[in-house]
Amino acid sequence: MNTNDIGHAYEGLLRVAADLTSASLDQQERADTDWTLCHVALSDRLLADAAREVLAGRPPLVDNLPAMEPSAISSLIRSTTHEERVDLVRRNGAEFVDLLARTPEKDEDTPVRLRVFGRDGQHVTDGEMTWGELVRLRAESHLPGHAARLAGFLAAAQNREQRG
Fold first, then answer.
1. For 80-93, what is each residue's pLDDT tens digit?
2. Which domain of life is it from (predicted)?
3. Helix or strand or coil: residue 29?
């Protein structure tokens, strides 16, 4: 599979996440940043497992509960620093992208069953899409959306610092 778009999406997210390391975020911005990085790192693990299933010729089930479950995210936040969370996103994302690079283009049509949970850990919906659609959604919407929100936090922190 072509990994250019998803690679660029991770680069953008990681760039802004690294820039937030020394930013003076307010309490809500810091909490949302911590949650976001843990959520992405945990979901990358799930997606890497799904990629392995696709490579093995099996249609995967992607159940995002482990990446949305409040206690799992809280535990990861408590046990890591911001820098460690950024590194976890970097490593887990790189593993996922590497698996995608090894995935033949024909496997983009592999059906993926989805179980989707919200940020509160409550079940939202079940569905299905192709592997290629799921990867495109992550590259074009999911990761850039998180990056944009974090960039907004960075801009707000910089504005507060300039105002003094």
1. 999 999 999 999 99
2. Bacteria
3. helix
